[in-house]
Amino acid sequence: MAKRADAERNRDRILSVARSAFAETGGQLSMAEVARRADVGMATLYRNFPGRRELIEALYTDEVDGICAAAEATPAGAPAQTLDRWLREFAAFIASKRPLSSELLADATQTGTGAFLSGGRLRVLAAGRPLLTAAQDAGQVRADLTLEQVLDMVSAVAAIRGEPGYVRPMLDTVLAGLRG
Amino acid sequence: MAKRADAERNRDRILSVARSAFAETGGQLSMAEVARRADVGMATLYRNFPGRRELIEALYTDEVDGICAAAEATPAGAPAQTLDRWLREFAAFIASKRPLSSELLADATQTGTGAFLSGGRLRVLAAGRPLLTAAQDAGQVRADLTLEQVLDMVSAVAAIRGEPGYVRPMLDTVLAGLRG
Fold first, then answer.
1. Among A73, A130, A170, B84, which is least packed, fewest CB within 10 Å?
2. What is the pTM of this model?
């Protein structure tokens, strides 16, 4: 039991270290560097993640889980505010996972990568759809956009290169535009 | 005199044919195909444009000229409407020149390409700045965005893949957001 808890802690620490290291380095990190930063041996690292690709996929899945959980959290406030808050979390996810998804895409010839990424997209769409529907049904958000369009638009703006202070007012503009 | 007019007509026809052909083929067009479609000999084509690169640069310059001229046309209506109309032209320019600029960027190691492209950007910024300033001074457009941010945002949305009917409501949303 203590052993299983240890193993889970190791896995969590590896993922957490890898996430910030990937963000810092723009995806240039080696497995050896992940092991060093997480303070685990290479054997432990490879027991959890047989390769760099599996580690990156786990990071991606983790972030998709997070954005889906945020959509399912109990909403507080008007439907448009709930949607607004979730789209800001989604934008942060897009900005942070850029090195991850570009690495996965660069490897897209490998079997299953396309399906893997589009599986993440489908889960995010399913999680967010009730939020957009509620806001549109309440007449608080323009009705001529599908969730695919909303997410494509927020993604495009969130992925603009620049400091958070440069990108933030653009995201504010898009979200203000959603309200009509 | 007739000769010079002929030469100009040839150059214009080559550019016009090349523009639509590049848009159709996503930039896959050969010089031979341009000559064939423009109904000119290869000698005439190469006299006007020593190579494919020069032809693409001429197309790009032509479109930058167009977007600058649109900004300088006598405004009719409120400053926010003038800005809105110009940003829609800019968005169409971004959507149409995608194959051109990606080809130029792919070739960006060649001397001067970066300077060439950023020269176009500087001209567009200079042409559009009075429009944004007028709309902001009139209190018709949100004041927390620079023209660089406005153009980055419009470019990001205009470059989203999809039919015009898919992208259009996203552009409408961004432009509505600009108005506050």
1. A73
2. 0.84
